[in-house]
Task: inverse folding
């Protein structure tokens, strides 16, 4: 409750800032109106504007666009892009609004292009190609596809949006079997900076196809994702949690699991050292164990299953069920940082201990009930990029250059107010820096930052490696020679700010 109220106050304050400087920079909105899009433009006093700004997942994500435009179809996106590209205004693109840092997918003094009306989800039963607009969330996509016996490699939290997830990589329960979400996009429909609409796939505009698999919104606006679907079968698993004292045993199993996952790619594991006072007063080790083929309690989790739990919700269920069972609630102020490490017991153990220390310190500066943390490890064994991604045409993430079995690490904190966010942010960035320093000293740092988890101060695109950066820049130059999608988008991760 407190978080929603403070989000409204913050949003109102930002609206005022936006209004006061509006006169100088209304270029984009005026150009949209002149292009005949008035019915789809929302200004700060409009109910639709207020509702769309309130629909971002993180309370720190909404900014103060001069106007929001909600195109209804690809032809309108073409008009929108042409109008804004030819105007003096800046813009940003927003799909599901789950970008967690300020500036990820909203803008001050510019236009937010909101793709929320692109809600189509269909599947061709013959080709098993699912065509998905950037507007819905994954829960809706899964429910729609399941009704037709199909499934795709989408997000694990059903609230997450399509556009950011798929253009940033996309780690799902199916990654071991199918590669990243982006690897499963067989065709992107894209509106380019000059207003042309093109398809990008293995045969047509294949360089753009590859660049969009990890390169985010640097090349255009994706108006449809055609994904290779597969037959939906019930999966098994869910959430469990153990007392912190079992951490070392669980870390040992996390490392074993990661190193052996190539033999059982249908199994997925997440290990999360978390302080969540709404559920437990102490730090616990939460685990998500999933078998996407539906095997009950498969051998890969045999040792983990022996750890005594304080919570266990392991069952046979649909993808849409698991994706809606543990939704991370919207409305908090959030800070996320992400790094990648070699799967090394000592590194994980050290970082978990640093997290313990950080939570102890935070308890001296914030009310115990006002914050949550997650210190979360996800296996990224080498076979995923080398076998799965490459077999599907490759992407620009650069993970195929990582020879080690790695762990994707995410540290998050969620608080109630902007003031608390200012307090907590240095703790998270320092924990990130200390973890990186320790892993480096141990020779276990992997120079890769996952764009979809990174803070705005991090540099994920650069971490893809020089070859991929050059490739993405060449592709951007070819399809957007005036660099509209870099120069006029002031937030988000952009190639010109690497
Ligand atoms: C609660 C929660 C759970 C999550 N779980 C997972 C998970 O399981 N696995 C995982 O990999 N990630 C996960 N994430 C991270 C998630 O993938 C990113 O936040 C992602 O950006 C969300 O996509 P979105 O469309 O909602 O983002 P938005 O905030 O709408 O957009 C993010 C970025 O993508 C760009 N973009 C969006 N749509 C388009 C488009 N159509 N064309 C071009 N550019 C576009 C935007 O301009 C922006 O830069 C999670 C995030 C949250 C908050």
Result:
């Amino acid at each position: 409750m407190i978080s929603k109220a403070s989000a409204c106050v913050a949003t109102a304050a930002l609206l005022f800032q936006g209004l006061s400087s509006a006169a100088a920079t209304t270029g984009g909105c005026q150009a949209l109106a002149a292009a005949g899009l008035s019915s789809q433009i929302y200004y700060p006093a409009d109910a639709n504007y207020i509702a769309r700004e309130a629909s971002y997942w993180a309370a720190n994500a909404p900014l103060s666009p001069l106007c929001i435009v909600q195109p209804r179809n690809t032809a309108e996106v073409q008009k929108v892009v042409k109008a804004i590209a030819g105007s003096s205004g800046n813009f940003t693109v927003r799909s599901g609004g789950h970008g967690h840092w300020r500036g990820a997918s909203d803008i001050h003094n510019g236009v937010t292009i909101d793709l929320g009306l692109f809600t189509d989800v269909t599947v061709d039963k013959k080709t098993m190609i699912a065509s998905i607009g950037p507007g819905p969330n994954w829960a809706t996509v899964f429910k729609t596809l399941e009704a037709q016996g199909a499934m795709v490699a989408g997000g694990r939290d059903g609230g997450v949006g399509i556009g950011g997830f798929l253009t940033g990589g996309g780690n799902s329960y199916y990654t071991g079997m199918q590669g990243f979400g982006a690897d499963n996009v067989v065709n992107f429909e894209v509106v380019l900076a000059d207003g042309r609409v093109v398809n990008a796939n293995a045969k047509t505009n294949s360089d753009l196809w590859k660049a969009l698999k990890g390169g985010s919104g640097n090349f255009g606006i994706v108006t449809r994702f055609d994904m290779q679907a597969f037959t939906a079968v019930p999966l098994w698993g869910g959430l469990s949690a153990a007392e912190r004292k079992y951490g070392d045993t669980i870390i040992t199993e996390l490392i074993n699991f990661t190193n052996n996952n190539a033999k059982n790619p249908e199994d997925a594991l997440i290990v999360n050292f978390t302080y969540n006072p709404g559920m437990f007063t102490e730090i616990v080790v939460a685990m998500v164990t999933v078998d996407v083929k539906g095997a009950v309690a498969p051998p890969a989790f045999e040792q983990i299953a022996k750890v005594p739990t304080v919570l266990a919700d392991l069952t046979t269920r649909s993808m849409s069920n698991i994706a809606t069972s543990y939704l991370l609630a919207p409305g908090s102020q959030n800070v996320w940082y992400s790094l990648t490490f070699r799967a090394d017991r000592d590194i994980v153990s050290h970082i978990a201990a640093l997290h313990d220390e950080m939570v102890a310190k935070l308890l001296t500066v914030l009310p115990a009930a006002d914050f949550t943390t997650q210190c979360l490890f996800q296996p990224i064994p080498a076979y995923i990029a080398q076998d799965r991604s490459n077999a599907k045409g490759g992407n620009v993430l650069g993970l195929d250059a990582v020879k080690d079995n790695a762990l994707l690490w995410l540290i998050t904190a969620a608080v109630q107010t902007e003031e608390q966010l200012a307090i907590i942010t240095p703790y998270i960035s320092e924990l990130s820096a200390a973890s990186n320093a320790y892993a480096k000293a141990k020779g276990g740092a992997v120079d890769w930052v996952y764009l979809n988890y990174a803070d705005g101060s991090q540099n994920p695109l650069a971490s893809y490696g020089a070859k991929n950066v050059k490739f993405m820049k060449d592709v951007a130059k070819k399809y957007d020679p005036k660099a509209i999608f870099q120069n006029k988008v002031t937030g988000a991760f952009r190639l010109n700010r690497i």
Summary: The domain at 121-231 is CATH 3.30.465.10 (Uridine Diphospho-n-acetylenolpyruvylglucosamine Reductase; domain 3). The chain is about 35% helix and 20% strand.
